[in-house]
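The instructor's notes for this session suggest beginning with a concrete chain rather than abstract definitions. Hand out the sequence below and ask the class to guess, before any prediction is shown, which regions might be ordered.
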Amino acid sequence: MQPLSELPRTVATGLRAIFCDIDDTLTTRGRLGAAAYEALWRLREAGLPVVPVTGRPAGWADPIARLWPVAGVVAENGAVAFWLDERGTMCRWYARSPKEMKADQARLLETAFRLVREHPPCRIAADQPFRISDVAIDFAEEVGPLGLDVADKLRERFLEVGAQAKVSSIHVNAWFGEFDKGTACERFARERLGLALDDGRAAYVGDSPNDEPLFARFALSFGVANIARFAGRLAREPTYVAAHDGGEGFREIADRLLALRAAPPAGPATRAKRSPAGRRRAAP
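After discussion, reveal the predicted structure:
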């Protein structure tokens, strides 16, 4: 990971969209602060659409897509995406049929309830009633925070029953299906924004192991400073890292991008041109 100060202007000016995590990336200690929310507006006004990509439930994605200055929302680690079309109508797509996802979720909840009995004081996440595909066990939001060793044990148990499982900064999320944040971002970028993830025109900002598929898929990625908590646990790390945690780190990244995009190109600002009279003059 390189310091954010080393981000070159050419990379910033080539950017066309930003995807980002929510918990502990846009938020700080569970709250969306004024600095991060204002950064979303400034990015939007500068022509850089932002797409939050979260493990939070589908039930949260609808109001975020309606009320925040964003181009859409990917929720439940890639299970569903929400966005407003040009007429302001809410649109969505699902990685699998909602009926199949709910049936698999019911089976997985049996495992989740067993695990929280085995690992007190973990508990089913408070936002579970608003989920349609996955289950979430809380180890650091309204309990603890407990150690990452506990989160790793929960994740391993979900893997043993054939589920996918990821550790975020607050939850262990598990689901059935061949999708994740990475596959959902590829689809949203292609279908909604006309972009690929591997050419530097789209970037990702995150903070935890469940963002690792995005750090691997995006040619350009950023971490907020609290990603240091997971040092040594990520096979793929972000390209650049901010000096501040959470929402302040996101604001720092936005500031750097916008400043570089507004700056004049480096090097001589003029070049000599020959006038019709044969004299050399500076280019206007």
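Then share the key points. The radius of gyration is 21 Å. The domain at 2-95+179-262 is CATH 3.40.50.1000 (Rossmann fold).
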